[in-house]
Design brief:
With 311 residues, this protein is of the alpha+beta class. The protein has two domains: 3-118 and 274-309, no CATH class; 122-264, no CATH class. The protein has helices at residues 3-20, 27-45, 50-77, 89-116, 127-135, 264-309, and strands spanning 123-124, 145-152, 165-167, 190-195, 198-199, 203-204, 225-227, 232-245, 248-261. Helix 1 packs parallel to helix 6 (264-309).
Amino acid sequence: MGIEAILAAIAGGTALLFLAFARLGWKAAVAAAGAALWLVLALVMTGNRTDVFEPNLAAAAALALPLVLGYLLLRLVYPRLKGRDRAPVVPLLSGLILVVALIAAGSLWRTADWWLGLTDAPVARSTADVLALLEGPRGAYVNGFLLEGRIAPLPAPGAVPAEVIRLPCDNRGGGVPLGNANVKSRLPGLVQLELADGPSALLHLPQKSRDYGDLPPLEDGFGGCGLSGGSLATIWYEQPGSASRGDTVLASAVSPRLVEAGTATEFKAQTLPQMQMLARAFLALAAAGAVLALIQAALAVPHWLRLRRAG
């Protein structure tokens, strides 16, 4: 069974549990525990890709809030309403929660879908490639593009730094070096890449360490993992751009999302499938959340009819 089928089964099973046990008090605990367990398993199975997990978790939390409110209304509020004049309250509140939940589910779906779209994201290895993307249709890089090049050390007063990027090594690939916890992070914010046909403009880098992938150990005696001058790197940007230096047009890019060591081909073949597996787990949660919101709205109808018939 493929991962898509497994996720679809989990999403469908969660919805059926909610429907079957709609009047039992422990349904919220079952749904919450099941969703949390699935996310933990997905995170562990996909190599602790926190760069995918954290932003999607925030979107998932935004979806959970209206679902919890909808549950509380069904369980505690609607059964206690009395009188025909209270009937409009039920569709008003349920409709509002349904709209908010569907918007949150759509936001979670879109957030997770970013990584799935990287399979077909274009790869730029030269200034000509970047300018071609910039002049072409926006749909060609709807999920961004991958810029591949070698790190060019930024000049410093009196010296060139041994490393451009330094981070504590993570444990995605196994053990971590001794003293890793004492490594001080260095995220310069700007970098220049040597592309196939010349240097790029100064490019922005992500500001959060979670947005840096499995970087190789730095062999300079100071520990940690990172990228130094001459290292091959692939950076995921949302949009291409350009900059001028005299009469020369340089490649640029906007909104960095991820930095990985190695080529774009290696990234798509080795790292991206793990990230996409975790993203699909959140897609399943988005689908399940939308279904649960619709079920909650349907379960509110009997309360509305009861109040309509009240004297």
